[in-house]
Design a protein that fits this description.
Strand order of the largest sheet: 1-4-9-6-7
Helix content: under 10%
Distance between the termini: 47 Å
Structural class: mainly beta
Largest sheet: 5 strands, antiparallel
Strand content: 25-35%
CATH topology of the largest domain: Jelly Rolls
Number of strands: 17
CATH superfamily of the largest domain: Galactose-binding domain-like
Length: about 350
């Protein structure tokens, strides 16, 4: 083997070793999480996968999961552009991690013949763009690489198409720091975006979580992945982004889901401003109430005594005592306060 070839292989090995110590910047890269899927219809309407943003203003377009692959059908409108993207920078201190680094990204996909596809990796300052016109339907791997600028404003990977009624099937999207993209790296996000946590030793949420024990706030523009999970479940703010729920002072209860353990499940109300969900659904609220019951009072009736022209009177010998108000301001078990948080990164 020549010295040049040896150096080439050593160079590739160096990049590979560096890469395997990195993290996949794409959340839900193989489309396992669909918080807003509708299982009440057959086939299931999975919709947009968690973490992603999808836009297509035309008619007859849509997104769904078919055989573990994401299938995007573009609309019939000549003026509409289909955009499918994810913000990769949405985690604490992303600038320190990504700026002045080379990021490589890959999308594994196939599409109907003649489809025009553009893939973009952008940091808000510079962009790496790849354009393809699909000649056959065999799966291809589109690779992008970008050196993230010192003054980067974001890091976004985006797929778009101007083609009408095209079918684009995506199996994976992945990206990481380094010269080589690897599909099976652990994700930058540990756990699941949208999961809640209880903390008993602090009043302050960790940097990758938000407090649910505060007045409802609208998510920031840099929390699109959590926004895709909440999807306006608790209402939307002036900027069109989801509100966080305000659960201060509330007890948590598991979803009844038709079991009728909660006999009033269908009467549950929406939680939050502008929320439209109610009934037996996750995220609804129920007011406190006492179960119907009967109190039995024991007393003795004395002997019958005439009352002139009136009917007989039965005097009560064991006279009832006057009632008085007892108890506190609410019905509750013994409890301890905890901070509830929701994961955004």
């Amino acid at each position: 083997m020549s010295e040049l070839r040896k150096n080439f292989h050593n160079h590739e090995l160096h990049h590979l070793i560096m890469t395997v110590n990195q993290r996949n910047l794409v959340y839900n890269h193989d489309f396992q999480y669909f918080s807003n899927a509708n299982y009440a219809v057959d086939p299931v309407d999975y919709g947009v996968p968690d973490g992603y943003q999808y836009m297509d203003q035309g008619s007859n377009g849509g997104v769904n999961l078919v055989n573990d692959h994401l299938v995007i059908t573009t609309s019939n409108d000549d003026q509409s552009v289909m955009v499918f993207k994810q913000a990769l920078h949405e985690f604490p201190r992303w600038q320190q991690t990504l700026c002045n680094q080379t990021v490589t990204a890959c999308i594994q996909l196939s599409a109907t013949s003649g489809s025009s596809i553009s893939v973009l990796l952008s940091d808000g300052v510079n962009s790496s763009i790849e354009k393809r016109v699909v000649e056959d339907e065999d799966e291809m791997i589109i690779e992008l690489q970008l050196f993230v600028d010192t003054h980067a404003e974001e890091l976004v990977i985006q797929l778009q198409s101007h083609s009408n009624a095209s079918v684009i099937t995506i199996s994976k999207i992945y990206a990481n720091i380094g010269q080589v993209a690897v599909s099976n790296l652990p994700c930058m996000i540990d756990g699941v975006i949208g999961q809640t946590q209880q903390l008993i030793a602090t009043c302050n949420p960790p940097s990758n979580q938000l407090s649910l024990c505060q007045s409802a706030i609208e998510l920031s523009e840099n929390m699109t992945r959590l926004d895709s999970v909440l999807n306006g479940r608790f209402g939307r703010g002036d900027q069109g982004r989801s509100y966080l729920p305000d659960i201060r002072g509330l007890f948590m209860r598991s979803w009844d889901n038709g079991a009728q353990t909660d006999p009033n499940a269908k009467e549950r109300k929406s939680l939050g401003r502008g929320s439209t969900i109610s009934g037996d659904l996750v995220g609804t609220i129920q007011e406190d109430v006492f179960e119907k019951h009967v109190h039995t009072i024991d007393f003795t009736i004395g002997e019958l005594k005439p009352s002139g022209d009136m009917a007989p009177i039965y005097p009560v010998i064991n006279k009832l005592q006057e009632t008085s108000e007892v108890g506190g301001d609410e019905t509750r078990p013994k409890n301890v306060y905890e901070l509830y948080t929701i994961k955004w990164a």
